[in-house]
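Notes to self, RING-type E3 ubiquitin transferase:
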Amino acid sequence: MHLGRLGKSCIVSFKGYVWFCHRMGDSLVCVGIGSSFAFAGLFYHLYQEKKKELNKLKEIPVFKPDQHLLKVLKACPHQRLQYVAVEGVVQADGEPLASQFVPRCFGVIQRTTVEEHWQYWSSFTETWNSRKKNSKETSNSVPFSLVSPGAYISDLYVKVQNPLEASGCYLERVYHRLRHAEQGLVNVVLQGVSGEKPVAMEESEQLLQVGSTLTGFGEVVLEGGQVMRLQAPKDGRKYILMLTSYKSFIDRHESSATMWKGLTALTGITGSALLAGIIYNLVGKQDDTSK
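result:
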């Protein structure tokens, strides 16, 4: 069911409850009933969508950089797997990147960000408002591969092609600092003239660290009978890198589906309990009237 169609059905149901409220004379409780059932319908729709997404994810074949993957690729036409998940440990093909701020911390993808936090005086609201400017972001990467867990020295590995083109959460923040600006007499005078003042400078660094567990979703090809390569799929599906194991990735989606299922049950039971209470009171009033 499309969300637009679901919204229309919820509006129709809500109008029906408004009419019911008018007949019952307890509009506040009836609005609560209508809202509960409307939210139950919405949460059930989100649960079904998440369940479909989860089923599709579970249909994706999962491999590790080992002999089994190599045998499957050699047996496939064109020695290619169109869309699979590969889970392994990150290993730099050459010299890794050293963190600019953290000693003895190495990675294969590095992203540093520097942002200036400023405040400017608004004569309209007569307040200081915040904004960021002079933002600088630098990204670096070195070639890296995925190896099987526990096999840091191995002849079998999967090279990760063009990782910066992939989507997903594959960077971990290893450094963050907020440096507040010093307020001197000269700065105070300049602020009064320009109507702007520096507040702080924010620095952060993110890394895909060597030794991290990474799961990549994409196309795997075999080149030269030995070199396995993970790359962006040619059929238009998403090229994804996730800083987690495949099991943890699926567990997160299952937790999300369970949450929507629980909210559906909670709002449905709440609406049903309120409706049962109104019907019970109505029956009681009718019995009293007949007596």
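- Helices lie at 3-24, 27-58, 67-75, 185-194, 246-290.
- The chain is about 40% helix and 35% strand.
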